[in-house]
Known about the structure:
Chain A is mostly helical. Helices cover 65% and strands 9% of the residues of chain A. In chain A, β2 (62-66) and β3 form a beta hairpin.
Amino acid sequence: MRYILFMDLSSTAYVILGMVSVHPRSGYEIKAAVDESTRRFWAASYGQIYPELKRLSEQGLVTGMDAPRGERKRTVYTITDAGMERLKEWLRRPPEMSEMRDEGLLKLFFSGVLEPDEAAETLRRMRDRRAALAEELAALEAVVIEKSDEFALMVVRGGVEYNRWYADWCERMEAELLATARKERST
Amino acid sequence: MRYILFMDLSSTAYVILGMVSVHPRSGYEIKAAVDESTRRFWAASYGQIYPELKRLSEQGLVTGMDAPRGERKRTVYTITDAGMERLKEWLRRPPEMSEMRDEGLLKLFFSGVLEPDEAAETLRRMRDRRAALAEELAALEAVVIEKSDEFALMVVRGGVEYNRWYADWCERMEAELLATARKERST
DNA sequence: GGCTCCATGTAATCCGTTACATGATTAC
DNA sequence: GTAATCATGTAACGGATTACATGGAGCC
């Protein structure tokens, strides 16, 4: 007999716990929920979800129940009391990890070897991307309002604001860049 | 004899090309440069840098030259014309990848199971972290100004602005959260 | 003498994505 | 009937971090 008292959970484990804390879901549904909500700041793939569900189940943090749809097998997972405790305990701990990888910024950073208008082109692309993302999230906002989930709404709106700020920053930097380029040409 | 005409380069390869495009550097110096500049939006470890330098050298995109310091062996890498062309070609391509992982946002997203003031605590931690980061980058700004690198400066300042926006957003969300919590308590 | 920094490298490991396999159900 | 979606899983692969090994140089 093995005693698992308090094994460290992976970050994916908490996404799963969070997702089933709202209401029971199948692995497939968890993946779908992640893809339309946390994906932009915390993704998860089938390759993580299914093995993790098995582990969480073994540790008694979720329980899987058969819930077939016709002849199609299906297992929905419910969070247990122990699972809810672990989730809350994690939520109360100060957030640690935060990282980003941004190819646009990297290109900008090295753009000293290019002509100013080539660098400006990078900024325009970045701007367009961010503007599109802001619109996408603004559309999602309507969907989230329906669910009346205060925190989900807060996060989507934050996403809209962030992408708008970013798009605006790109515009300003492009203008600045072209302005100094003009000034330099005239001397 | 092997003919490598146009093998795809890894993202790390471009960081290295970018870093040696400014002036020749050793692997150690590349790592140090990454750590004090691009790290926040594009990191690189020794485990990537040294093998990648070897590959880039084999492909004729950089050339390594012995540059010992006393008895201590040291190799500095210089970008070749071919390497510069590859770097520029990449810089001109529209940026694709951009991703983030943010534990704070993830915790916020699932904070519906907590008391409002516990969720507010998460926002306070996030705010403090962002404010500290903004200060850190503001201090770095002074160092970057010395180097008179227009693009590096643009990126650091962007970082300051971003973290200040983020910190401010956290403050506003905390206020909003506590306000609705008060309202709900009074009903 | 010991600590920190300079300097190069590799092996083990972790984390995560992609691709694939399989099969039922629903919509057109 | 066939394409898309629901549903579960795993194997292969790739990217990146961590840890370790090795050793010289400079400083207190």
